[in-house]
Please model this.
Amino acid sequence: MYFAALLARTEDGWEASDTELDDVETLSDLTDLAQEASVDEDTVLVYIEQEDAWFGILRVDGEEDPRIYVSDASAAARSSYGEILLTDELLGREPGAEDEIAALEELVDLDGTEDGDPDVPAGPAGTTADRQAHPPSHPDSDSDPDAGTDPDAVPAGPIGELGILADFGVSEKDLLTLRTDALTEIADALGAAEVLEAVR
Model:
């Protein structure tokens, strides 16, 4: 079960609204949603929660790049809404790396030769003994320092900007201790508990 809420800061305090994410497919969509709710380009927070699993915060300040925090990346990765927040930049990947890896895998046969490559020629270099003495390199080889690591694996635990709410009185330590119903404690710190309760 998901819950999403939007908190927009105004001169008179915070305004809260529950948020439908049916039409949100990308981080840009979510950022646009936040910017549309912004008053005089002030701060807008979008909170997304999957009950008892993870929560995420997207912060938008005017035209600045969005800031993101996710309480449990591996849990969020199994959610369509979580995937929106888990950008390549947040995960430390090169943009489009997954697409490049998939394309390379399609080009390479299971035996490690590219499509259209001739078979290994007969002779000393192609003998069974030679192949045993000089086996092809393999990503799981014991000699590989990165053996057993998956560059596309999503880490367990929190990821993103721990100081995303520090200027509103929610320290990094406070954020890390939040679990279920984190929005209630965040709203308390912001002084937005009453306006949030009105839309829940």
Remarks:
- Confidence is low (pLDDT under 50) at residues 126-131, 137-148.
